[in-house]
Amino acid sequence: PLPVLAVVGRPNVGKSTLVNRILGRREAVVEDVPGVTRDRVFYQASWSGRDFTLVDTGGWERNVSGLDLRVAEQAEVAVELADAVVFVVDATVGATATDEAVVRLLRRSGRPVVLAANKVDDARGEADAAALWSLGLGEPIPVSALHGRGTGDMLDAAIAVL
Ligand code: GDP
Ligand code: MG
């Protein structure tokens, strides 16, 4: 079986956009509205000659009071079946309490994590990405899933730990 790379993070941070960028086609469903219910979706992907299974996550309910818990649960299931994780944070928003909750479960999982600081569409966003060192997951890799900026570096880091 191929190694599994799971993409986790809050709704609307750009996980599905990043998955499409990695696949090189628009297959994952991109939503402008956060919280749309989706199950985990599996894709076959490759980078630098390495084949792997890529998991896009979603599936939480639009339940404001329970949102943190639902996101954490969803991420937990995906992380359990993953060999490595890409944790996507919206660098333009910064680390939220939900992000911190996901970080705790990622730590407990023991899985290697690559921190993707998304929505860094140009050089001005680099400082936003650097602020995510505060999550304690190591170097935030600035990416723009939308434009492809930095995604190659992010994939290099991911397959190095996969
Ligand atoms: P998901 O809920 O985490 O899967 O997020 P989506 O991939 O559905 O994206 C949510 C919204 O963020 C969409 O409107 C995307 O176009 C937008 N988005 C995703 N990546 C980027 C990015 O790198 N830059 C910008 N500016 N917007 C992005
Ligand atoms: Mg999505």
TrEMBL record:
Name of this chain's protein: GTPase Der
Family per similarity comment: Belongs to the TRAFAC class TrmE-Era-EngA-EngB-Septin-like GTPase superfamily. EngA (Der) GTPase family.
Organism: Kineococcus glutinatus
Residues noted as binding GTP 1 in the record, renumbered to the chain: 9-16, 56-60, 118-121
Name of the encoding gene: der
Subunit structure: Associates with the 50S ribosomal subunit.
Domain EngA-type G, residue spans: 3-162
Function: GTPase that plays an essential role in the late steps of ribosome biogenesis.
